[in-house]
Amino acid sequence: MQITTADFAISSTDVNKCPKTHFPEFAFIGRSNVGKSSVINMICNKKVAHTSGKPGKTRLINHFLVNNAWYVVDLPGYGYASVSKTDRVEFEKFISFYILERKNLVCLFVLIDVRLPLQAIDAQFMQWLAENEIPFCIIFTKMDKLSKSELQKNLAAFKKEMLLTWEDMPDCIISSAEKKIGKEDILDFIQENILLYNKHLQNVKNEN
Q1: What average pLDDT score do residues 43-60 get?
Q2: What is the mean pLDDT of the chain?
Q3: For residue 207, what pLDDT is reported?
Q4: Residues 7, 13, 19, 25, CA torsion sign
Q5: How far apart are CA 182 and CA 140, in angstroms?
Q6: Three-class SS string for the chain?
Q7: Bridge partners (DSSP) listed for residue 26
Q8: What's the CA gap between 186 and 110, in Å, rounded?
Q9: pTM for this one?
Q10: For the chain, which domains are there?
Q11: Rounded to a whole number, what is the distance in angstroms from the first to the last CA of the chain?
């Protein structure tokens, strides 16, 4: 997939204020300092999402229109130690509402730092997605920070831990925003799912 345009569309405080459209959406979420904005900017070919050394800068649901045909959605993360308990509860509430209620959300990309073992908060979040039948794909970030042997060791350990409670591994993509690794894999995944989404819409239209 070639990205020709990627532009900020709107920031929203809840799902009811998101764009009124049937365009497919691909949302990105992850723990504090996982590199979410950098991955979004990598696939959009420009700096659309704000990057910061201070975690927790994304406080809204941010929509970016790509190729005038689909949306990248930058969601507030989870697990911020630096925000108040009240703010954290509020974030969790409107993030959950978006994920559960947004009908044109095709897939949620869950970003995970490949340098770390499986964190309890990530495991719990993915379990919640599975229980609510939300399609998701793991994007491992910062692979350039590890040697090849370290990378394979960490991925194997992550998979082993996941398979203690999962029958199969979710879809996974390995990436490095700094080295532009994984960009084509993410875009290919998005393109494939856009085709399936549009086919579904057409089938629904024909049935009606």
Answers
A1: 71
A2: 89
A3: 79
A4: positive
A5: 9
A6: CCCCCEEEEEEECCHHHCCCCCCCEEEEEEECCCCHHHHHHHHHCCCCCCCCCCCCCCCCEEEEEECCCEEEEECCCECCCCCCHHHHHHHHHHHHHHHHHCCCEEEEEEEEECCCCCCHHHHHHHHHHHHCCCCEEEEEECHHHCCHHHHHHHHHHHHHHHCCCCCCCCEEEECECCCCECHHHHHHHHHHHHHHHHHHHHHHHHHC
A7: 72, 107
A8: 12
A9: 0.91
A10: 6-207 (3.40.50.300)
A11: 31
Amino acid in the structure at residue 178: E
With CA atoms as reference, report the closest residue to 98 among 12, 15, 13, 11.
Answer: 15
Residue with tokens 């793991």: 138
| Predicted local confidence at residue 185, as pLDDT | 98
pLDDT in tens, 74-91: 998 876 555 556 555 666
Q: CA torsion sign, 22 to 65 to 30 to 188?
A: positive
Nearest to 166 by CA among 204, 200, 118, 106: 118
